[in-house]
């Protein structure tokens, strides 16, 4: 029996509407990320805010910070950044794994300037492009003493950052010797400092500058793997504080809650699930190792970690839930665990059912995007959870589906259960990308954000995604821009046109695949093109696992590549192979349904339960016909 949940959260759309009868501003919520943490430090000074497991083993002694110590560290970080010349409009780019210093960089950076978190798993050139586009004046990175090759990857990018004032290295304790924190100077003349030594020299009791205001920019988040000029979403403090407060009303988390933070702190999900959603109500977060869930110790020990620290909730992607299914409870007591959130990618129904049946833990699917700060909808923790739905809109944010014409102009709202473009409007919605040219078509009339996702809303207010107009590939919760794959494949002299999509995958949700046509008279093979693409893509996760050469690509009436048809072909191919590998004879035919999106029909003489076991591993809507 799992722990009881609170009594004040959302159960239905009527509860959302009831919450909104009290004006948001009259609730007195904090309006900046700094104010959220400062208030909790005042109220919960000696309560534990962060526990950090260095190895991920459940019996290790964690590093621990109280709210008072967390705020002091944030003050030290902000004051160090200010001392290096940063002002409110300056940009600090950090390329860090999950470390205690990452929390200080993130929230200290937002208190003094603008932070730009960058995925440390990207190739060095891509990291350099993002930091350059952001206008980085300060880099916070791993030093060479930390190993792993991170510094060696990033150091060559320093010379391209024309605004750069300094570099801060996070080094292994005791590995450097400096009284003032200064270590060396880069080849381009940029001073390099040790993060911990420099912070220890700063005042901890207050900010050296005025605290941020709600309208100040807090962060620049890059929106996924890209080549060329990356898109950078602008988040204000008001955006972040609103989302933290609105989700607090939905979840009803409190001071006794303990979250597990295993997602990377360069991503908006972790900013909230291992940060503001926890710190806003005086709870605590358990962080595990620099690589979080990717560390080989974490998933095998997860239930023991839950048992020792009385974890009450966590956020993860479908691949993590699938991996946890294979880990036995043994003697671990997981009764404290109330729910797990999944919102980065669609959850395959089989994983959803198996996880809940085996663990008794509620799975809560939601939906969000960087451009809406993080979250826009969530299945009610306290009410009916509809498998396959992304739930109800969060309080004080509007959400609906609309019909747009071929130019992206608003035509009308959709009827109940009619598929259309999902649009959102509210204080969590960003003001646009840093690059003005990237904002074309992002907003429709009256401030509604065009998410680019297709969906429908049922009569009870639950939203269901039916496809993606914007065509991002979501591999294990990580967004991959298909253009980076297409551009790489198009470099091959034999390729005429390339279209990249995400094909279904039982583990990662989606994997990249590419459909191409060849130039007249040219020759190539699928394997040659696959290897060529992999060698020209700056992000290994984006390398296509399948390349297919077609005589012609499907086109819309106005001559654009019609990717839903390619996803239909890929779905038929992937499901057919999975069934064949399982020894099940079947014919798979997929269609694009107006209401439900892509549906795959499986005709088979095999037992329906056997067929269902295979196809339910994929996040694909299916119907099974057996004879």
Which descriptors would you attach to this protein?
globular; 627 residues; nine-stranded mixed beta sheet
* Fraction of helical residues: 25-40%
Largest sheet data: 9 strands, mixed
How far apart are the termini? 41 Å
The averaged pLDDT comes out at 92
Low-pLDDT ranges? 1-7
Strand order of the largest sheet: 2-1-12-11-13-14-15-16-17
What's the β-strand tally?
Answer: 30
How would you describe the overall organization of this protein?
There is one protein chain. By secondary structure, this protein is α/β, with parallel strands linked by helices. It is built from 16 helices and 30 strands. The strands form seven sheets. The protein has a nine-stranded mixed beta sheet, with helices on both faces. Strands 4-3-5-6-8-7 form a six-stranded mixed beta sheet. A five-stranded antiparallel beta sheet has the order 19-18-20-21-22, with no helix packed on it. Helix 2 packs antiparallel against helix 3 (67-83) and helix 3 packs across helix 4 (100-112). It starts with 12 loop residues before the first helix and ends with a strand.
